[in-house]
Structure formats: C-alpha cells, structure tokens
Amino acid sequence: MKILVISSGHFLDDDRIVVKQGFSLAKLGHDVTYCAQDRFPIEHDKVKFLEVNEPYGSMGEHKAKGKSPKPQNRLLKLFKLYKHAKALRPDLIVAHDFETGMLAWLIKKRLKIPYVFDSHEFFQYTVSAKFGRIVSPFMRLVVMNFIKRFARNAEAITAVSPENETFYRRISSVPTRSLFNAPLVEYFPYSEEGNDKITIVHEGNFTLGRGALQIAEALPMVRKNHDFKLLVLGTVANDVKRDFDKLIEKSKKNIDIEMPGRLPWTEFGRVESQGDIGLICMQPTPNNFGGLSNKLYTYMACGLAVLGMKGSQTEMMIDKYRCGIAVDPTDPKAIAEGINYLIEHPEERLDMIRNGRKAIDEELGWHCMEEVMKELYSKVEENIGRSSFNS
Q1: Residues 352 and 376 in one domain
Q2: Do the Cβ atoms of 19 and 264 come closer than 8 Å?
Q3: What interhelical angle do 162-171 and 313-321 show, nearest 10?
Q4: How are beta strands 198-203 and 228-233 bridged, if at all?
C-alpha cells in the first residue's frame, strides 16, 4: 500500500511520527512518503521525505523567538500538502494534526483518497485555547464539529491515551486504538545502577504548563534534606527563566543542574538512563491530564521511578504498572514530599523501576505498538480493497 504521511505541526525528524510510525509502516511492507517541515537531516532506506517549509523562516525559529507561525504561512503549507497528495495519489493518507485531519477529510471528498487520523492530543481544547478566554468556548464548539466530521470519515483512528481513545469511540464508529508513544527499547538502555548522587530527570523544556515554577520551588525544599543532581533534557523557556532562576537560588547551596542541550534521538536514552527519578508535573488542563506524555514511557524504559500528576491518565498508568507515585503538581510542597519519599525508599524505588521496564518489555514498548499498527492497518488495507472492488 502506498502511504503518504502528512503533518503541518511536526518535523521530518519527529521521533513519534517518522522514526516510529513511518519507519514501522515501511517495515510492515508499505511504500511510505513523509511530508512535513524540515529541521534536521534524516535518512531511511525505505521512507521517502518531502519538505514543506515555512516561507519566512522555519517553525523552529518561530518557537525560539516565542512566536507562532503566521496563520497565512500555515495555510500555505496546507496548500502544499494538498498539492503533494494530488501529485502522488497514494492509496492512503495518514494525518497527524487538527489542520491535516481537516485537509485529509477534504482530500477524501475531492480526490477519493482514504485516510487514517492519528490524534496526539485533545484538539478541542488545545486549538480553541489559542483564541483567548472570551472566544475559546465558541471555538471549542467549532473545533468539535470539525473533529466529528473528519473522525467519522476516517478509515481508522490512533489515539494518544485510553481516555483519548474513549473520546473518539464516542463520536465515531471507525476502528480506534491507543498507540502509546513508547520508545524503541534498543535506544533506551535500562539501568539499575545507582549514582553517588541521586539524579532527578526532567525530559523536555521547562515551561509554565509543565510545572516549571512548581518544580523550581520544590527543589530547594528537597535540597534541605538530600543532595542531588537535576538533569534537564531540554531548556528553560524564556517566559519562566527569570522566575525559575530566582526560585532555584533560594536554596542555601547551589543545586547541581546539568543541561546537555538537544541530543539526537539515538543518544537520548543513553543520557536519560543515568537518572533515578523522572518528573512529570504537567499542570491541570484537559489535554495534560487526559493525554499521556512520551516521557512517561522513556522513564520506564530507562529505569527511573516516575513522579506524576494526581487525577490524570499518568496516575492511572503509574498505578496500573506500579512504576512510581502521583502527587498534586500544583503544590510545590507535595512535589518535594514525593521526591523525598522516592529518595528515602530505595528498595521500593527499585521495585518501581523494575515494574516500569517490565511493562515496556511486555506491553508498552514500540515493538508492542508495531503489533497494534500491523493489526489496524491490515484492517484498513482490507477495507480499502473491498471499497475499491465495490466501486
């Protein structure tokens, strides 16, 4: 089957869409072309790449300056994606964003090309939130209307979490499966080896939505009782850096912080496996609490005990696999107490990290997700063949 993967908001080197899904589809025998924003060089012997760059600077440059790409630029990119679909005439399109979900629906109506929709988040909240508090409720209804339309016309849907899967099953009758953003285990080595100094890991950039200020206020409380190193696989966002640094400085002794900068996806796990405790302190929003961050799975794979958010899908996974503890992410004291507990109970922490890696090996690793994809795309291919025969 000839598959065109399209994305308006992700990059050609995206580890979820290309390195995992795109490469896996090629591994399953499909002819895969991936069309998106270019950022860093990436090659694969079976996957072809087409770039659709922002006309005035890359999306990465926009984000570095704290700005969003201009709406007209994003619309132009969608037009380019449409032209590629029209020229290539694939058997199937896989769409990875709200905009490309709508585009895939339009392509099906005009060009009769079926599509699969991959949902990374709760778009009715994340898209509508961009319009401000006053307009947001109305835009949520508009976005929901579009989601229902392209969800019901897809061949299949892959969801980011069980709650996300339940949402799509409520509004659509097409085959829907959770596709957990778990790592390729060969690149995320498991380690039980302890460090002389406890290493606390935060994967991803420190932002307000990820609890940057709450974590910064919690760490000096932990430092009163324990020595540790903070390993940040990302950067501190410009809008919180000043407050973050001030809170860290409140500690009587400087906190040892290591920030190795952007790493190739092939090296990411090797660095993360040096940690002991992994933090997920996303602040309460429907998307943050209803979805599942990929850092949950990489922490589990690398042998880190997870500290996650109470009342979220993350807590549900932590409880199910007994791989960490959950606390109130809005309360710095609760975060500090959670970290202290994990530091002060090394035997229990070791059980947690063993449980986490076992879950990755047996249920959640990408080798398991490939089986989900194989089953789902076999059904899609069968349905497309039947539709072609009937037409």
Answers
A1: no
A2: no
A3: 120
A4: parallel
